[in-house]
Amino acid sequence: MTIIVGNDHAAVNMKEEIVTYLKELGHQVVNYGVDTAQSCDYPEIGEKVGQAVAAGEGGLGILFCGTGIGMAIVANKVRGVRAAVCTDTTMARLARQHNNANILTIGARITGTEAAKDIVRTYLESEFEGGRHEQRVDMIRDIENR
After folding, report:
1. 9, 27, 40, 65: which one is catalytic?
2. Average model confidence (pLDDT) for the chain?
3. pLDDT of residue 4
4. Is the distance from CB of 8 to CB of 106 less than 8 angstroms?
5. How do residues 102-129 score in pLDDT, each as one tens digit?
6. CB of 104 closer than 8 Å to CB of 95
7. pLDDT over 90 at 23, yes or no
8. What is d(CA 140, CA 137) in angstroms, rounded to the nearest whole number?
9. Distance CA 85, CA 1 (A)
10. Phi-psi bin for 88: left (phi > 0), alpha (psi -120 to 50), beta?
11. Of 9, 40, 86, 98, which one is the catalytic site residue?
12. Can you give the pLDDT at residue 97?
């Protein structure tokens, strides 16, 4: 699967570690993030990744910033994106199974790299359950379209 990633200056190291991990798992990676710790504006990166995922340029997206919150807020402004901040594997699993989240966000200042790898693996291995959850995701889509 192609995974679209992005990060700001606070998450360069974590992004690099996770990109290596994704490649080890056999995924292709498209990187819209920065590669230096020089301060940057995360909304530009979050929007690019959100647009790419919404346009179907990759299967799923992963965004990294200091807390994961800013990137999630930005990505969720893009029509068709359901971004979820996840700090553990249960959140990652349920974000996919119940919310059909298409972008995972992780806070590099909140979550350690090994925990982030577990979160990413769980997120990628989990699948949307549909059923009663489909109706709710459809409701979210309706709100977005109003």
Report:
1. 65
2. 96
3. 98
4. no
5. 999 999 999 999 999 999 999 999 999 8
6. yes
7. yes
8. 5
9. 21
10. beta
11. 98
12. 97
Three-state SS at 31: strand
133 is catalytic: no
CB 58 within 8 A of CB 76: no
DSSP at 127: -
The sheet that has 103-107: what strands, in order across it?
28-31, 2-7, 60-65, 103-107, 83-85
Q: Using an 8 Å Cβ cutoff, are 2 and 59 in contact?
A: yes
Partners of 3 in the beta sheet? Answer: 29, 60
* SS3 state of residue 96: helix
Instruction: Render pLDDT for 44-64 as a digit per residue (tens, 0 to 9).
Output: 999 999 999 999 998 999 999
The neighbour count for residue 142, using CB atoms within 10 Å, is: 9
Q: Is 40 a known active-site residue?
A: no
**Cβ-count burial 7-27 (b if 16+ within 10 Å, e if not):** bbbbbbebbbbbbebbeeeeb
